[in-house]
Design a protein that fits this description.
alpha+beta, Ubiquitin-like (UB roll), 11 helices, 2 domains, about 250 residues, Fumarate Reductase Iron-sulfur Protein, Chain B, domain 2, single chain, five-stranded mixed sheet, elongated
């Protein structure tokens, strides 16, 4: 069994520091499992969020070697030897060998562009508020007849309904980093999804288009595809944003 160094950015109120832990790697070990090892065997005060452990809930999103990822699906073997500072999947990575003094290691930090509550736990309220602001639901009357949907439309919608609200896209977004009011990739991807949905009423489409037609909406996107690169469910927010722009020109 080999060992690696797990470096974790810690935070307690205004105090911020880096802790280093030596962890024994097991076959198939994920970063989330490494965090559990630290919490259960070394430092019980370590705080992080998780739930399903199967890349379904999105709870364990964090910055791993400077790339937003889900800790439960990130294999230690895949990231401990990342030694290039070249952009990885469209997102700038780090050079762990420089930070960890030549040793195999992994740097784990809280997801960017959101306030830190403690250690690796971020406050998701602002992210959820941004998503809720575009009213991601269908307004329907119980008396209305069911709306049939073509299989081709269902396939288009499925690309966007796969979002698990993990906020990795928000953490990778440069527009969200500089503008806290920017709706962000997740919200705008859902805006395109509900614009497409044949069950949406025309007045709701118009209201939505008016709401997102601003610098904090579709025009705030830098079109650098970082959100697409990091999405664990292969949602493509940038493509949806560009299509929404086309509807407004």
């Amino acid at each position: 069994m080999s060992e690696f160094e797990l470096m974790i950015r810690r935070q307690d109120r205004e105090q911020i520091w880096i802790d280093r832990f030596t962890v024994e790697e097991r076959p198939g070990m994920t970063v989330l499992e490494a965090l559990f090892h630290v919490q259960e065997k070394i430092d019980g005060s370590l705080c992080f969020r998780y739930s399903c452990r199967g890349a379904v809930c999105g709870s364990c999103a964090m910055l791993i070697n400077k790339v937003p990822r889900l800790a439960c699906r990130t294999q230690v073997s895949e990231v401990k030897d990342e030694t290039t500072d070249e952009p990885k999947d469209g997102v700038a990575s780090i050079k762990p060998s420089e930070i960890i003094e030549g040793r195999n290691g992994i740097l784990v930090e809280p997801l960017p562009n959101l306030s830190v509550i403690r250690d690796l736990i971020v406050d998701m309220d602002h992210f959820y508020e941004l998503v809720d602001s575009i009213k991601p639901w269908i307004n329907s009357d119980a008396k209305e007849k069911a709306t049939l949907m073509e299989p081709s439309m269902q396939i288009q919608l499925e690309k966007y309904t796969n979002c698990i609200l993990c906020a990795t896209c928000h953490g990778a977004c440069p527009a969200a980093a500089r503008n806290g009011e920017y709706l962000g990739p997740a919200a705008l991807a859902k805006a395109w999804r509900f614009h497409l949905d044949p069950r949406s009423k025309e007045k709701d489409r118009k209201e939505l288009a008016k709401f997102i037609n601003s610098d904090s909406g579709v025009w705030g996107c830098d079109v650098v595809y970082k959100c697409v690169a990091v999405c664990p469910k292969k949602v493509t927010p940038t493509q949806g944003i560009l299509k929404l722009r086309g509807k407004m020109e």
